[in-house]
């Protein structure tokens, strides 16, 4: 029921409107019958009213003056005016105060019912819209830290390099900063206490104080990395560092007192602005670790190993450039999510991570999602989706658009790409480069590099590395080849460098891989 107030200086009209109209059947509860606008103003200062039915001409405060007060102070309250005056000036003034209906005396009951049926529809629509906005705000407040986390993790691992894109994402995530004017730092907390809860620690650290925004970007059992962003421009790097150190000491003390966690902290890198962070931060991380791949929705994947395996398959299809298989795999993923009845905010975090991986892969191919789908692509869209069906249909729409683009524009590799691949497969043991391959296919290195990434999903250097390591795996199956010879045979003159690349690609040293292969053959 919506709360209704009747205001008229003639008692018989007030009582007539009260008694002759079945307000409850129209969806209204009559809460006050007042004889002047002055009384109505006093009521409004104490209680909320949804709709006022008021006469225009009254002794102390007229209906138009009441409408003006409501317009300026209670703009959610609706006004319907009823009057014996039909002059245009009255109507015009009433409309300027957002009066939604203007009835003329004498008024038919049927007209009143028609007007208030319309008022009810308006109020219902506003209520529905407000509830929807409240839901969006709630989801946004839940997920904004997660979206910021993905943004700053991509910044700090070198996965985001387009300054204009970063500026747009900062605005979308409501970070009051730009890429040029705000210092930032990479800070690490190292845990001495085992079994640390990621959720508890991250909630404790998400903070915006002393003009600094702290965003956790990665956590495992040993440490937590976060970005500290100077929002208010400390006068110099020393004062910025001092503020971070002071706050981190407070966090450590709080962790010890509330959670019993022992830890220490240090500033890994200090940067003049986000652009320097984007270009240099990867130097501060161990390049053997892939922060992006190691961090996903901890609870959902830990408690649902099937989901973790299906996500791995989705990313495998993505890595192999098998775009056509992504839609089917997405359906499988969402079905597992649906059956697992996971909390909504974990599901949305999972999907943000999944489509962030997809976006990064397509950006590597110089194919931004919004270019493929011809419409803006925002992670924030996920915030507005509440049901399983909405999440499923949205994801499928994006993936189907991407697949259609690939089918139309990239179904067949240009002959130059195939010739470049043949060149690598034939001369993998030589000192080959993008420049030497480009000379073989009569293209500029820049152009070959760009279309190679578009059609294969890998840059040229990665393809060379993958080819060489694949050849090395074949050599390791044959015991007649010594390990130090294999590196040279596949194009690596420096044995130590060959070992490093091999382990990064396979997870094993060449010796470990050969031992594993021999052991498998004996079984």
Task: Report on the architecture of this protein.
The chain is built from 24 helices and ten strands. With 523 residues, it is of the alpha/beta class. It has a five-stranded parallel sheet, with helices on both faces. Helix 6 (109-156) crosses helix 15 (344-364) and helix 13 runs antiparallel to helix 14. The longest helix is centred in the N-terminal third of the chain and has 48 residues, at 109-156. The termini are far apart.
In short:
This protein is an alpha/beta fold.
List the helices and strands and how they pair.
Blueprint (H helix, E strand, L loop, with lengths): L1 E6 L3 H10 L2 H4 L1 E7 L2 H8 L6 E5 L7 H11 L4 E6 L4 H9 L4 E4 L4 H48 L6 H10 L11 E8 L6 H8 L1 E3 L2 E8 L3 E8 L6 H23 L3 E9 L2 H7 L10 H4 L3 H6 L1 H15 L6 H15 L3 H21 L4 H5 L14 H22 L5 H13 L6 H8 L3 H12 L3 H17 L6 H7 L5 H12 L3 H13 L1
Parallel strand pairs: 1-2, 1-3, 3-4, 4-5
Antiparallel strand pairs: 6-9, 6-10, 7-8, 8-9
Helix pairs in contact: 3-4, 6-15, 13-14, 13-15, 14-17, 18-19
Give the key terms.
523 residues, alpha/beta, 5-stranded antiparallel β-sheet, 12% strand
User: What is the overall pLDDT average?
Assistant: 82
Overall 3D shape: elongated
- Major sheet attributes: 5 strands, parallel
The termini sit apart by: 77 Å
Give start-end ranges of low-pLDDT stretches.
Answer: 286-300
Side by side, the strands of the main sheet go 2-1-3-4-5
How many β-strand stretches? 10
Protein name: Two-component system response regulator YesN
Modified residues (4-aspartylphosphate): 55
Domain HTH araC/xylS-type: 418-516
Pfam family, one: Response_reg
């Amino acid at each position: 029921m919506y709360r209704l107030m009747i205001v008229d200086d003639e008692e018989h009209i007030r009582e007539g409107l009260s008694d002759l109209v079945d307000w409850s059947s129209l969806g209204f509860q009559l809460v006050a019958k007042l004889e002047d606008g002055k009384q109505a103003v006093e009521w409004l200062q104490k209680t909320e009213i949804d709709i006022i039915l008021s006469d225009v001409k009254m002794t102390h405060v007229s209906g138009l003056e009441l409408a003006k007060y409501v317009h300026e102070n209670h703009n959610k309250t609706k006004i319907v005016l009823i009057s014996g005056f039909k002059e245009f000036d009255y109507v015009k003034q009433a409309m300027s105060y957002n009066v939604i209906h203007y009835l003329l005396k004498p008024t038919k009951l049927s007209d009143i019912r028609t007007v208030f049926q319309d008022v009810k529809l308006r109020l219902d629509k506003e209520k529905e819209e407000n509830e929807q906005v409240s839901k969006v705000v709630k989801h946004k407040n839940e997920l904004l830290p997660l979206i910021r986390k993905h943004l700053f993790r991509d910044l700090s691992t070198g996965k985001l390099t387009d300054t204009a894109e970063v500026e747009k994402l900062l605005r979308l995530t409501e970070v009051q900063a730009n890429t040029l004017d705000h210092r930032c730092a990479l800070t690490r907390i190292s845990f001495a206490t085992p079994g640390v809860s990621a959720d508890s620690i991250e909630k404790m650290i998400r903070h915006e104080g002393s003009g600094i925004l702290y965003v956790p970007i990665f956590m495992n059992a040993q440490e937590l990395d976060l970005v500290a962003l100077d929002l208010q421009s400390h006068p110099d790097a020393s004062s910025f560092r001092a503020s971070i150190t002071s706050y981190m000491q407070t966090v450590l003390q709080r962790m010890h007192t509330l959670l019993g966690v022992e830890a220490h902290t240090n500033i890994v890198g200090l940067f003049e602005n986000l652009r320097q962070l984007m270009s240099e931060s990867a130097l501060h991380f161990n390049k053997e670790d892939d922060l992006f791949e190691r961090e996903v929705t901890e609870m959902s994947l830990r408690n649902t190993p099937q989901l973790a395996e299906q996500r791995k398959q989705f990313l495998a299809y993505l890595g192999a450039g098998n775009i056509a298989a992504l839609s089917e795999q997405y359906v499988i993923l969402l079905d597992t999510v649906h059956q697992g009845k996971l909390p909504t905010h974990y599901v949305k975090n999972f999907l943000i991570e999944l489509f962030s991986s997809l976006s990064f892969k397509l950006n590597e191919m110089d194919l931004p999602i919004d270019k493929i789908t011809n419409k803006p692509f925002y992670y924030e869209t996920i915030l507005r989706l509440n049901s399983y069906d909405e999440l499923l249909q949205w994801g499928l729409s994006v993936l189907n658009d991407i697949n259609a683009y690939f089918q139309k524009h990239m179904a067949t590799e240009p002959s130059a790409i195939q010739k470049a691949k043949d060149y690598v497969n034939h001369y993998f043991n030589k000192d080959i480069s993008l420049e030497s391959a480009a000379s073989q296919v009569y293209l500029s290195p820049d152009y070959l590099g760009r279309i190679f990434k578009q059609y294969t999903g890998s840059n040229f250097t990665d393809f060379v590395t993958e080819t060489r390591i694949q050849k090395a795996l074949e050599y390791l199956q044959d015991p007649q080849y010594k390990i130090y010879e294999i590196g040279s045979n596949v194009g690596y003159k420096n044995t130590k460098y060959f070992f490093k690349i091999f382990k990064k690609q396979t997870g094993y040293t060449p010796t470990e891989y050969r031992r594993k292969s021999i052991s498998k053959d004996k079984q």
